[in-house]
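Fig. S4 source data, part A: sequence.
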Amino acid sequence: MEALLILAGAVLLALGWVWLVIAAIRLSVGRMLFALLAAPLTLLVRGRGYPVSPRLLLLLGLLGILIGTAQLYRHQPERLDLLLSGRWMADASTVNDLQGTIMGQPFSPERIFWRGEDLVFEEGPEDRVRSALTIRFGVAQDLLRAPTIERLPSDDGAWPELILQWYSGALSAPGLRKVKDEYSLSLDLAEPVDGQVAGRIHLHLPTIYNTWLTGRIELPPTPDWLQERIHGEQLEQQRAAEQTANAATEKGGGELPPQWQELSLLAMMDEPELFAGAPVRLTTWSGRTHLGAFKQLSEENRLILAQTRGPHQIELHFHPLDIRMIEARNRP
């Protein structure tokens, strides 16, 4: 909101300035130059022939900038300091597109990190956190085995708990709220590269919370427990692929194992029943590969891939836009 006020004020100020200069052309050269070089000062003079309408735009523009700056100082003083010092130019390359709100207040996390099995987003100085959003996976640890997590408010099962923390200022008490359901979450945790994870998050809470968060995320060194889970998942997929290939070779009397043939994603979306139960290999745009049996389409038109993990079977849900390629076994 503060940025919109400042931006709108700057636009009105520029329009009023240009309008005033054009209108002052019919006046004397001195008055035109005064309008050109110091248009806001014309608000302090009277009886010099300057029209009222452009000066009204100037006044509205100045008010918008002042009110927006005051709100920015109240809610985000660190950003105002960066703006006034000019350091925002040097730091522009480090700013990501992760934006949101917490209980109606602007929220732009400056730190993203793991605290145990909690994914934490914080804004403000480390010694005086202004706002924070925590996704707690303590009761939903199995979700972290998959690179993507998709949840709609109507989905059942074990899901993370959300912790909302915010601070409005010295005149109000800090806020704390726990949310266990009725939210939608799309979290893409790509495979760690050089100890870091890059992905995206889309989080929306019910209207009564006025809270959302969306954008790209970059995480510091991945916790050992998460790297072990991902590594274990890759080993299980590799073993499953080798077992399937060996079984096919033995059944064929020493024939070459089956090859992979690319399928049409649109065909699978249009007629999923034709591919039900087929063993497939799915590759996402983040570079992750998943082996399993195509099960069906969910009500949200996501592809469901079934994988066997020991005595259990899990289901992975994939949005069609996240899929780069999908293949099926084909014997040459």
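Fig. S4 source data, part B ends here. The longest helix spans residues 224-251.
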